[in-house]
Amino acid sequence: MDEKIKQMKELVNKLDKASRAYYQENREIMSNFEYDQLYDQLLDLENQTGIILSNSPTVNVGYELISSLPKEAHEQPMLSLDKTKDINALKEWIGNKKGILSWKMDGLTIVLTYEGGVLVKAVTRGNGEVGEVITNNARVFKNLPLKITYEGTLVLRGEAVIRYSDFEKINSRIENVDAKYKNPRNLCSGTVRQLNNKITAERNVHFIAFSIISMESQVAENFRSKQLNWLKGLGFDVTDFKVVDASNLVQSIHDFSDKIAYNDFPADGLVLAFDDIEYGRSLGTTAKFPRDSIAFKWQDEVKETRLIEIEWSASRTGLINPIAIFEPVELEGTTVKRASVHNISVMESLKLGIGDEIGVYKANMIIPQISHNNTQSGNVEIPKNCPVCGEQTRIQQESDIKFLYCMNNKCPAKQIKSLTHFVSRDAMGIDGLSEATIEKFILQGFIKDYVDIFRIERFKEEIVQLEGFGEKSYNNLINSINKARETNTVRLLYSLGIPNIGLSTAKLICSNFKHDWTLIENATYDELITINGIGDIMAKEYVLFFSNEENINRIKEILSEIELKKEETSVDLIFENMRFVVTGSVKHFKNRTELKEAIEMRGGKVTSSVTANTNYLINNDISSQSSKNKKAKELGISIITEDQFLRLLNEGEK
Q1: Domain that holds residue 205
Q2: Which three-class secondary structure string do you get for 578-606?
Q3: Catalytic residue among 6, 17, 71, 104
Q4: I want to staple 377 with a disulfide (CB 3.0 to 4.6 A). Which of 353, 456, 527, 648 is the partner?
C-alpha cells in the first residue's frame, strides 16, 4: 500500500506541474498523450487503494487565477467533463436515451450574460469557481451579437476560439521564431485576457455557443437540440451537433472524425450530452464531473518507427531544443518524419537513443509527438557545444525542468535577438529592420553591434543590390534610422536589454533620476532599491550591467550617434511609496494601462490584488459588490473613482 501511495503522490506532482504550465503559463511540458496516460494510472491507483489525495487532479478543477483582470464567482461551478476514448463505453453511457454529439472546442470557455437584450457581462471559466471578467473584450469578438431579441435575463456558455487560418496569419507576421504562438488555444487565451481590447479585435476571436445555463422565461423547449436552434435564431454561432442514440452513435462519431482534417476551428474531441436537460440534471454530479455529459477523445493513431537522430535547434534566446528525426511514417493522412521533444527533461524521461523503436502520433490529429520508447537505450549525448557558434553549452533547471542553453553572449543567435529588441517599437523604434533583415545584415558583415545600425550608410551599394531591397527600401530604412536618432532616456535604457528591466521599470528608473543619463548610468544598488517597484534581483542585474566596461563602451558609441531629448515636463513623484489597484472600466484614460503608467511615472506602484498595503482602489463603480471592493471595505482601504483620482493627481502637482 505504501508503494502505491508513493506512486500516487509522484503522479499528482507531475500532473499538477503539467496543468499549471498549460493553464497558467500557456506552455506545455508534456504531451496530451502522456498526460492522459499518467492521469489514467492515477485513477487506477485511486480505485485500487480507495484513497484520493486532496490535491489530486481527479477531484480538483483548475488553478487560481494570476492575471490582473477583475474576478467574479460563478453562480454555478463550471465542472470539467469526464472522458473516454472507448466508443463502446459511449454506447453504454447513452443507453436508451437520445443525446447531442458536438465538437469539444479547444479554446477558452466563456459565460455570457444578457439583460434586456444587451450583453452585460462575460466571464472566463477560470478555476471553475471564480473567473475573470472580460466583458470589454467579448464586445469585440468577431461574431458575437451585442443585442438580441430576447429581453429576459439569459446566461449561456460557449467557447472563444481562434481559427487555424487566422492563427497562421498572425504567426506569419512574427519574424522572431521564438515569439511565434505554439497553438491557437494559447493565442486565444492570451487574446481574450488582454487589457486592451483593440488587440482582441485584431485577432478575430469567434464565440461558439454550446449550452444555456439559465433564462428568465422558458421560451425554448427543455432539450439541448431545441435550445441550440433557438440560440442560432438569436444570431449566435452554435457548435455543430447531431442528435444521436445508440443506433447511430458510432457512425456519427466517424462522420465527425472525417471532418476534423478540414475543420478551421481547433477541436480536441467530441462531447456527448443527454438531449433531455431535466433528465440530465436529475443525475446530479460527482465531485468533479457532471453526469449529464461526457467527453470523447479519439484514439490517437500511433505508428512504430525508428529514431535516426536528434537534431539540436538553437533559438534566438540561446535555448537549444532537441528535435527527433525518425524514419517517415504515415499519420492521419500525411507523412511525418520529425517531432519536437520540447526539452532535456522530456528527452531523458523517454530515454531516447539513436536506433530506438519509438511510437509517434499526432496530438489532436495535428502536432507530431513521441508517445513511447520501446527500447529506451538512452544513448543520446547532450551537446557540450552550441550548434551555431560552437561555444560551451550548459543545462539549466527552471521549475524542475531541464533546458539546454548556449553560454556564449556573442552567439549569432543571441546577437540577432539582441539587435531585434534594440530596434523594436518600444525601444529605438526603427522600422524596416525585421529579424530576418537583421540576420541577413549580420551574415553580410554590415552590422555587428548596436552602433553599426546608425552607420549602415557605409554599405549602401551592397544593400540596394540585396534580394528584397532596392533604392526605395534603403531610403525608407535610412529615414527611419535618422528619425530614431532623436530619442529619450526611457527608450535608450529599455533598448539595452538589461535582464529584468522591462519598459515600465525603465520608466520608473528614468523618472526617479529626472531623465539625467549620467545619473541613470551610474545608479547604485542602494539608490535603485529605494525606488518603489525595484527589487533586489533587478537592482543587482542593473548594477552588474553598468559595471561591465564593454557595455559602457557600447553605450558611449550609441550616444555619439543619437540625441537624448529633454523631457518637456518634469513629473514630481507625488505617489512615491503608494500602492494602487485599478479595476473596472475607465473613461478619462484610453485604457487601464494608460492609467497605470500615469501612476508609475509619478512614483506609485500598481498591483493586481487588494492587500493591507494598498493605499487606494480605483473603481468607477464604488457600489460594486466585486471581490476587490469587498476586500477593500474589509481592510478599510479607500475606494475612489477616476474623477477622484484626477483630483488627487492635480492637487499633488500644484
Answers
A1: 71-296
A2: CEEEECCCCCCCCCHHHHHHHHHCCCCEE
A3: 104
A4: 353
